[in-house]
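Record 1 of the preview.
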Amino acid sequence: MQLLKFFKRSKEEKDLLYIKKKNKEFRKKFAATSFKDRIVLAPRCMRNLSVCAAIEEGPYFICQNCGACTIGKIESLMKELGYGSLYVLKGGSAVPKIIKEQKPKAVVGIACCVEAEPLFKISEDENVVTQFVLLLKDGCANTDADIEKIKEVLIMTTA
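->
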């Protein structure tokens, strides 16, 4: 009966369950990973395009902390904690290259449901633990994420 209930769920409900399951599965290993060995992958759609001062660098943007979106707040917190790099991605296809080149031990992924499964798959293939934070709304422009949820993930430790 439980299986039947699962198949009657919408695609979005299944995606959310998948993300919760994977986050739970990787939580302890992620928490045990030092901040310096973690990177953050954020989508370009979080940028406020009308005022964003980010510099384009190949497959991603470099945040200039202009204050127009949440990305600057994320980067400031990362620096405070001693995190690795922040990548504001132009698209999900950049993820494998960044993970292979940077070799992080852990990734904080911020994106819509559509990007979650590929990120978890790539991370698992490369033996990288991941925690995923969903955007507050889907779309390809002017989206946002809950800074408090992101902060909870960023500061996650075993201590």
